[in-house]
Amino acid sequence: MKLNVVSVGTRMPAWLGQGWSDYAKRMPPHLPLALIEIEASAPQKPQPAQIEAERIRRACPERAHCVALHASTRPWATEHLALQLAQWCQTGDPVCFWIGGADGLDEALLRQADQTWSLGPAIFPHMLVRVLVAEQLYRAWTINQGHPYHRGAS
Fold it and tell me: Cα dihedral sign for 133, 30, 110, 143?
């Protein structure tokens, strides 16, 4: 099964790129984590989020289970993400995590998502969200493996 982070923006700062690479390399071979960068729409164009939404849709493989990251939805505890990851692994279908750009995700695209996931009520730079998602996916995998990386609150 492949995990794809489909994110708007193509100019990730080096320090964020290093963070992404570090967590992506930690994932096991049977659960690769890939980054698919989507070109941002020019802000002066009408409805840039709609243009980006179409690009996001086209970047996702068939049968992909799509998870939209959106701050206004209910946050998931890391343990919940671990349960979700175990369920996704059982299907074997690819999973795509959608991260919007400066204008967020288009409302129509949000309605098309199979699930929505929030990292909490704070708003983070979309490039940083990539690294946070990669770390949380790695942490979820370690929970499922009984690995000591995660020593969460009791």
Answer: negative
Does this model's pTM top 0.85? My answer is yes
Domains of the chain (ranges, CATH numbers): 3-145 (3.40.1280.10)
Whether the Cβ atoms of residue 8 and residue 58 lie closer than 8 Å to each other: no
pLDDT tens-place string over residues 96-143 = 999 998 888 999 999 999 999 999 988 889 899 999 999 999 999 999
Is the pLDDT at 154 greater than 60? The verdict is: no
Q: What is the DSSP string of 20-62?
A: HHHHHHHS-TTS-EEEEEEPPPPTTSS-HHHHHHHHHHHHSPT
Separation of alpha carbons 3 and 8, rounded Å: 16
